[in-house]
């Protein structure tokens, strides 16, 4: 199988490594099958799509919808480097899965709107498939309604033209969409387990993903949650697009 490529942007080593381990586990992948590039640490190297089965973009402390003037030099550089790669991905309908920050990048790239209208505190949320989601080759293997872990200050408010809404939620109307046949984006995190999101909230507890005085409640909600379906989505992505 050609490897998959994870494009990561978390500057904290513990968070970056936890994210990588999460995608390995959820996808049933070995390190040889999931290459990682940490874009916040170095320039994006030349990427030949034909060398990979698919591309994954994980979450980030970056917000794609922030005004350009407020973005750090690193974020501006990362997003400038990703634009031509996303051009290629969309033009070729190349297998792609963007989670959290990834949905923001794909929304902005495609001409949709990503902003702070629909934030969700860190923790579990209820996700429901649309009719198109139930008929989708990847999302159709999931339960019609399921719990997933989220934590975001921005979300897709207006879909990119031509995008297909696959999943929605009470607190965030766009939980997943597809562009073309093979380019996917989710607001929820397919790689997160209960233990992983507890690691994330410890690292990012002061980053505004929940009110500081709500930490005990956030931990209780996470501990009580049963989140299994998002990992099934990751495995379906690997099964469908893993190629020799």
Could you describe the 3D structure shown?
The protein is globular and about 45 Å long. The chain has helices at 13-27, 73-92, 101-109, 131-135, 194-203, 215-224, 229-241; strands spanning 4-8, 34-38, 54-57, 96-99, 113-115, 120-129, 145-152, 155-158, 164-169, 176-179, 183-186. It has one domain (4-241): Rossmann fold (3-Layer(aba) Sandwich). The longest helix has 20 residues, at 73-92. Strands 2-1-3-4-11-10-9-6-7 form a 9-stranded mixed beta sheet, sandwiched between helices. The chain has a two-stranded antiparallel ribbon with strand order 5-8. The mean pLDDT is 97. The chain contains 7 helices and 11 strands. Helix 1 (13-27) runs antiparallel to helix 5 (194-203) and helix 1 (13-27) packs across helix 7 (229-241). The chain is 34% helix and 23% strand. The protein is α/β, with parallel strands linked by helices and 244 residues long.
SS element count, helices: 7
Reported by name, the CATH topology is: Rossmann fold
Rg from Cα:
16 Å
- Name of the CATH class: Alpha Beta
Fraction of helical residues: 25-40%
Spatial strand arrangement across the major sheet: 2-1-3-4-11-10-9-6-7
N-to-C SSE string, H for helix and E for strand: EHEEHEHEEHEEEEEHHH
CATH-wise, what's the superfamily? Class I glutamine amidotransferase (GATase) domain
- Which architecture does the CATH hierarchy give at level 2? 3-Layer(aba) Sandwich
What is the gist of this entry?
The protein has 244 residues and is an alpha/beta fold. It has seven helices and eleven strands. 34% of the residues lie in helices and 23% in strands.
């Amino acid at each position: 199988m050609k490897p998959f490529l994870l494009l990561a942007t978390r500057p904290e080593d513990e968070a970056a490594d936890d994210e990588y381990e999460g995608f390995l586990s959820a996808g049933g992948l070995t390190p040889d099958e999931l290459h990682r590039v940490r874009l916040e640490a170095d320039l994006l190297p030349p990427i030949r799509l034909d060398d990979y089965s698919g591309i994954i973009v994980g979450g980030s402390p970056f917000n794609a919808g922030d005004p350009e003037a407020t973005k750090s030099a690193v974020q501006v550089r990362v997003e400038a480097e990703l634009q031509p790669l996303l051009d290629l991905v969309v033009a070729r309908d190349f297998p792609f899965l963007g989670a959290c920050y990834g949905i923001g990048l794909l929304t902005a790239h495609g001409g949709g709107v990503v902003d702070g209208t629909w934030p969700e505190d860190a923790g579990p949320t209820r996700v429901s498939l649309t009719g198109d989601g139930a008929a989708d080759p990847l999302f159709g293997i999931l339960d019609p309604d399921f719990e997933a872990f989220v934590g975001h200050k921005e979300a897709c408010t207006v879909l990119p033209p031509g995008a297909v809404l696959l999943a929605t939620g009470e607190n965030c109307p766009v939980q997943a969409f597809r562009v073309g046949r093979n380019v996917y984006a989710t607001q929820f995190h397919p790689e997160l387990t209960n233990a992983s999101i507890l690691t994330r909230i410890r690292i990012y507890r002061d980053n505004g993903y929940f009110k500081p005085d709500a930490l005990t409640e956030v931990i209780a909600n996470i501990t009580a949650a049963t989140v299994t379906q998002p990992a099934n989505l990751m495995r379906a992505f690997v099964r469908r697009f893993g190629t020799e």
